[in-house]
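Lecture 7 notes: from sequence to structure.

We start with a single chain of 320 residues. Read the sequence below before looking at the structure.
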Amino acid sequence: MSRSTAPGRPTGLLLSTPMTMDPPKVRCNQPDPTADQPASPGERSQGRFVKNDDRGNPVAFSHDLEAIVPPAGWAGKIAEFGIGLEDAEVEQLGKYLAALMDVNTRTNLTAIRDADEAWDRHIFDALTLVPVLGEMPEADGRKRVIDVGSGGGLPGIPLAIAMPEIDFVLLDATKRKTDFIENCVAWLGLTNVTVINGRAEGVGQDKGRKLLQGYTGGHREKYDGAMARAVGKVAMIAELTVPLVKVGGLVFLTKGEKADEEVTDAKKALHMLHTHHVGTIETPTGRVVVLEKRRGTPKMYPRRDGEPKRVPLGITGGKN
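Now the structure, written as tokens:
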């Protein structure tokens, strides 16, 4: 795929709030087959192909499904935004969408039932994160991004297809959803995706295995970036995402019209988490709130399961 990247610190994000982004320049990126793999051995999903007769499992689908073709004008729309996709990548996106639409007839993965609408509201919406992910700081080796509350694989799977040079971890607490994602990962042959079934509260406290000098593995403060889409308000989702990124890492929250209001309400929570709102980016499908982690997260965050949602940090009636 062709995409744009911006080396170093996200200077555009740091200069203005809110802001708009010019269409990115296009250049080719290919994954480095010699690069180190993500630092969580044993967690990379091996996936599995699903047999045609495996209909007892509601998230099973035939690997003979035909890719759904994008609607007229879709390719021009993403090109205008500055994203170039190869034919093979569009085919993979169409296959993923075919699986999503097929399984959604048996179990609820998305409220969107129309395939043409899904190309815009799911696939294009996910791909609007391509240029902002390109603004992550340079990393030693391959960059790692975690998708918190991935649901049916959004935005993680489309981004993994479009950005093979980044390793993505897709996290969700619902087993049937992570089973579906694993099936898709295997079918599409996505070697840059790891699937985890678990809660963000627990994963965010996972430092890994303790050694004489520090820790190995784990997830806390291990990622260059974290992202969440339609998971909850900024004050709540910040507590679930910020602990996962390294100091200097970025968090990308896909939001709608109330993004500014949510950021204002989350001001105290962001201070408690040692993170800052560095920009709100307008995209063709919504707005992306960008947070930068300036210092290590206090060890008490994230709190126990369900607490960030039940009592959001810094909100009236919440923990102060």
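The first helix runs from residue 11 to 15. Keep this in mind for problem set 3.
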